[in-house]
Amino acid sequence: MHEPMTITAAADLIRREAISPTQLLNQCLGRIDRYEERVRAWAYLDREGALEQADRLTKELAAGQYRGPLHGIPIGVKDIIDVFDLPTGCGSKLWANSYARRDAACVARLRAAGAVILGKTVTTAYAYLDPPPTRNPWNLDRTPGGSSSGSAAAVACGMCLGALATQTGGSTVRPASYCGVFSLKPTHGRISTEGVLPLAPSLDHVGLMANSVRDLAVLFQAVAGYDPDRLMTSGAAVPDCLLAIDREVEALGRDYSRHRDGEYSRRFLRPAELYPDALHPEVVKFVEGVEYDLKTFPHAMNAAVKPVVLPPEFAQVHRRHLQVMAVEAAETHADRVRRRPDDYPPKIRELIADGLLVSRDEYRTASSLSHTLGYDLRMAFWPEPLLVPATTSPAPTPETTGDPWCNSPWSFLGLPVVSLPLGWSSDGLPLAIQLVGGDDREDYLLARAAWVEEVYRLSNALKPRPLPL
Amino acid sequence: MHEPMTITAAADLIRREAISPTQLLNQCLGRIDRYEERVRAWAYLDREGALEQADRLTKELAAGQYRGPLHGIPIGVKDIIDVFDLPTGCGSKLWANSYARRDAACVARLRAAGAVILGKTVTTAYAYLDPPPTRNPWNLDRTPGGSSSGSAAAVACGMCLGALATQTGGSTVRPASYCGVFSLKPTHGRISTEGVLPLAPSLDHVGLMANSVRDLAVLFQAVAGYDPDRLMTSGAAVPDCLLAIDREVEALGRDYSRHRDGEYSRRFLRPAELYPDALHPEVVKFVEGVEYDLKTFPHAMNAAVKPVVLPPEFAQVHRRHLQVMAVEAAETHADRVRRRPDDYPPKIRELIADGLLVSRDEYRTASSLSHTLGYDLRMAFWPEPLLVPATTSPAPTPETTGDPWCNSPWSFLGLPVVSLPLGWSSDGLPLAIQLVGGDDREDYLLARAAWVEEVYRLSNALKPRPLPL
């Protein structure tokens, strides 16, 4: 039976000195030895460096210095994010041995919080849609999704307990969902992108992956916040998400008494129309099942899922997202693709070429929609989260990384999203929902997501399966 | 007869379309083909990329777009300074194929001014004292100096018309002087070090090399100025150094009439005691000769060289410079040298080890001396420049990069320095003087240096020699 260890559980053992950072790292390295040859999650594994870090953190603990819940936790870092003196390959052939001269801002913050940086996880080329070498650990004939392919596969296998990812379209939530791990794509600008290869800066987010909602909050708390080197970062205060989670879940399973008939305990919204023909029937069935569960599980105490009509402009979102992404990707890459055509696989090349054909006016129109529609949408559903599927289908075969259709709207609008892998397809692949929240209120969103996770756990409806590997 | 082409002369030809940027580049490439195998000035030569840049700039000219005096000028960039999508090797084995994802600030400014970035010039390991593969073009059995070894050798050979260098101790002025080219180490903070590998940030300067003082001013005008990404950069206005030069030299050679007997035309200061046993007799003789020339050349119209007593604290400068450099180099490199000992040659390793042994108090004392002494010194000699030798000896044999004794005081104090290669040793090696100016007044300093250069030219005392290669 495979139930991957959470950061929360490991942190508890480490704090009580029931396990040392070095022992925990060795468990992860054992899993890498077992799975990596088939899964190919790592672009660069820093075995020796990680052992040194774990050793130092073990000694700190022995000296009574405890840095907090990431002390000694092995983390993987997507290979477009700089880690000091490891290569940042970006899925490029030419850049495979390009060593970073400093940590990206988010990596520096993880390190300060005590995390062990285990290595670089495979990214698709320049974090776009061209397929990577990584395979889905639930079925080696399926894609892990992309572009944060290695981060998702590594966390799914327990090779590391959490990972840094990024998302411009669906690059965090999609691979996390295909691989059955939890993910958070925060509000745009919440986590500094300093030291991260850009794809389309006004859409680029640093994302997080782990094996529980609470773990996501632990990671978020360490890396989120204003960065004076990156004016695009949000200046809004980072709320205490762990406290918010504790408050939200503490009464679960014991306050039936306070619940009155006819009242609902929690409210979720669902788009009145979000299930076009593009969605796989298994996904439709799965999301309807989750809605039914929330209404019927006793622990959920009659949660409500209400349809909400999205503004008509929402219909333009996918097209507009693609325009903004294409124009900005062209700005990032066009000069280089002309000079190094061999270093660009077909899909990213096509995106850049498309971007060069979008007019300035179209770009401005597209870009401004994200602001106006973002505002209208918040008015429509805030403060309740929107419940939507995380992917259009279970993980497809690996000549593609799958369809970001379910994710790109929230990248475009910059709204925070948590994904929860709550179910399985008929052939044993993970399926996930997304909860979408309001700007800069990851505390509300994570708390509600933790509530859902806990309801499923208490109802014995979260069914981890053995990794078939 | 070898007289290397100046940026000023080439710019005149380009502006008049007497030569195209592509033709000029091909001249430089021809010199590289002829000399590089013996001199080894380049860590990475971007032949193809440079031809593309020159072609684009040639087309711009044909379309009537002239960017100014750097339009189409081939420039070399020291290999610790990032150039987009070329490796930044830093003299490290591990980093040899580390491609930069963006231009350093100074490179971006050169590019905007129309310069052709020809490639990366050899640096010693991490810009310290360990010998490089580069050889002195005036004598292949001598060092070109360091750490900007390739920049100096390349400009001396006419492989490029100017180069970016850096200086923490004597890394710009020393190699420039050994190789017989002009150099400017500006005021500390004048040129952004964003995108440049640090050695000791409070001493690190970006420096410039070229074949005339006016060329240095052209380069300086393009790259100097406040950088919002680098708070250490000076916010002081960048003066118009080209105008200052024009005004200073315009009357030379024709206003004898205005000169009255007994008056001096210009005043220079020399330290009352700066010639310890450490100086090579040829250098002492050379500097005394320059002083004599300035007093006796008719075009100099009775310039005066007056001794000035330096503050007694000046005696501490070399020791204090070394302490600050060692502590900051340790801060930059200590973690990495522990992890990658094989990637550190002996001298830089020793510097780092020394830095770890300096106490915080010693460092603070050393660091504060640079401020107090800098102030006292300016009071002592401002606004006249100080005239001092640029090196302790002609270029020594290549098991060393030579002694930075003459340069480190001005790195420590952050005062701007221009070096002028005005003479030759008895065995045919270049010798140079330094002029030291006041903070942020590179205009005064460059103007006076141009005056000296012009006096020498008019007196037929600047004697370029054929490269023996």
User: Level of helix content of chain A?
Assistant: 25-40%
Query: Would you give the CATH topology of the domain at 7-249 and 381-458 in chain A?
Result: Amidase signature (AS) enzymes
Per DSSP E runs of 2 or more residues, the count of β-strands of chain A stands at 11
CATH architecture of the domain at 7-249 and 381-458 in chain A: Alpha-Beta Complex
Q: State the major sheet of chain A.
A: 9 strands, mixed
Structural class of chain A: alpha/beta
Radius of gyration of chain A over all CA atoms, rounded: 21 Å
Distance between the termini of chain A: 12 Å
What is the N-to-C order of secondary-structure elements of chain A (H for helix, E for strand)?
Answer: HHEHEHEHEHEEHHEHEHHHEHEEH
Give the strand order of the largest sheet of chain A, numbering strands 1, 2, ... along the chain.
1-3-2-4-6-5-10-11-9
Strand content of chain A: 5-15%
- CATH homologous superfamily grouping of the domain at 7-249 and 381-458 in chain A: Amidase signature (AS) domain
Number of helices of chain A: 14
| Oligomer status | homodimer
Largest interface: A-B, 18 and 18 residues
Mean pLDDT of chain A: 94
Q: Name the CATH class of the domain at 7-249 and 381-458 in chain A.
A: Alpha Beta
Task: Provide a concise account of the structure shown.
Two copies of one chain form a homodimer. Chain A has 14 helices and eleven strands. With about 475 residues, chain A is of the alpha/beta class.
Which terms summarize this structure?
homodimer; 469 residues; alpha/beta; Amidase signature (AS) enzymes; two-stranded parallel ribbon; 14 helices; globular
